[in-house]
Amino acid sequence: MPKKYVVIVDDSPRSRATLGDALKRLGFEVAGEGASGAEAVRLAQKLKPDVLFLAVGLPDMDGLTAATHILETLPIPILILSSHLDQELIQRAKEAGVMAYLLKPLREEELLPAIELAISRFEEFDALRKENADLRRTLEDRKLIERAKGILMERERISEQQAFARIQKTSMNTRRSMAEIAQAILLSEAVTGRTQ
After folding, report:
1. Residue 48 — left, alpha, or beta (φ > 0 → left; ψ -120 to 50 → alpha)?
2. How far apart are CA 99 and CA 51, in angstroms?
3. At 140, is the pLDDT very low, low, confident or very high (cuts 50, 70, 90)?
4. What pTM did the predictor assign?
5. Do domains 5-106 and 136-191 have the same CATH topology?
6. How far apart are CA 145 and CA 138, in angstroms?
7. Phi (first) and psi of residue 85, to 5 degrees
8. Distance between CA 40 and CA 30 in Å, rounded?
9. According to DSSP H, which parts of the chain are helical?
10. Higher per-residue confidence, 138 vs 193
11. Of the candidates 154, 145, 155, 150, which has an alpha carbon nearest to the alpha carbon of residue 178?
């Protein structure tokens, strides 16, 4: 198994050192450490770790705010560290997209299962996110193709099947996607002023 890189952000040097030592014993590499929310954002963007450990109580912004900023641009598994159980924080962690909520003091035997579950959940979530994006793109492409078919049918007085075949053939001949051909048809229609 390739080595996983982690970043630890906690304003307590003792907590960072304890967690770092435990992670190294478990076979992880600590790629970076920080003590503030701003450092968390910077380190996450720069190092793109496999896992980010983020304390809730940070001096400039809380860990959940930092997590929200990070996850807007960089999807990575984040594990939140907190010294107390707080329902409001747990709710905020869920809304931010955090993968695990761990209580300090951390117990080393609980770390590996928490990390593995967080990574696994994250990978499932990421796969669903990509699948949703692909489905949205496919749906948008179909809408474009339907509109382009309608234009060809009206302009050329051909059947739906013939219009589809023409878009498909042009797509193959030009090595462009059917959506790109449909977009070109819609654009040419707009330029000639035929569409409202």
Report:
1. left
2. 10
3. very high
4. 0.69
5. no
6. 10
7. -85, 120
8. 14
9. 13-25, 37-47, 63-73, 87-96, 108-156, 160-174, 178-191
10. 138
11. 145
- Whether 1 shows a pLDDT value over 80: the answer reads no
Angle among Cα 180, 184, 188 to the nearest 5 degrees reads 170
CATH number of 136-191: 1.10.10.10
**Mean pLDDT calculated for residue range 125-152:** 90
pLDDT at 38 (0 to 100): 94
Query: Given a cut of 50, is residue 58 above it in pLDDT?
Result: yes
CATH topology of domain 5-106: Rossmann fold (3.40.50)
How far apart are the C-alpha atoms of 50 and 53, rounded to whole Å? 10
CB 31 within 8 A of CB 16: no
- Sequence-distant (6+) residues with CB within 8 A of 114 are 79, 100, 102
Please report where in the chains the tokens 């560290």 appear, as a residue. Answer: 81
Burial bucket for residue 163 (CB in 10 Å: 0-12, 13-18, 19+): buried
